[in-house]
Write a structure and sequence with these properties.
The chain has 73 residues and is mainly alpha-helical. It is built from three helices and no strands. The protein is 60% helix and 0% strand. Helix 1 runs antiparallel to helix 3.
C-alpha cells in the first residue's frame, strides 16, 4: 500500500497523461526532450520524489534528497 502522497502524485500524473493524449495539440518526442533540457518541467518529478521519500521511510533511512545522476542509494 502506498502513502497518500504517492497516490496523489500518481493520480495527477495519470490525469496529465490522459489530458495530453486527448489534446488536439500533439507534442512530438523531440519537443518533449527539448522541454526536459530547457527545464520547463519534468512530469515525473513529483511522483518520483514522493516514491523516493516513501522508500527511504520504509527502509528507515534518513538520506539527503536524491538529486539525479544515476540510481538513488
Amino acid at each position: 500500500m502506498s502513502s497518500r502522497e504517492v497516490i496523489n502524485c500518481a493520480e495527477r500524473l495519470i490525469q496529465l497523461v490522459g489530458d495530453t493524449y486527448a489534446s488536439p495539440k500533439k507534442v512530438t518526442f523531440e519537443q518533449v526532450m527539448e522541454m526536459g533540457r530547457s527545464g520547463v518541467g519534468d512530469p515525473l518529478e513529483d511522483f518520483g520524489e514522493a516514491c523516493r521519500v516513501e522508500l527511504r521511510a520504509l527502509r528507515g533511512l534518513s538520506l539527503a534528497p536524491w538529486t539525479g545522476g544515476g540510481a538513488p542509494e
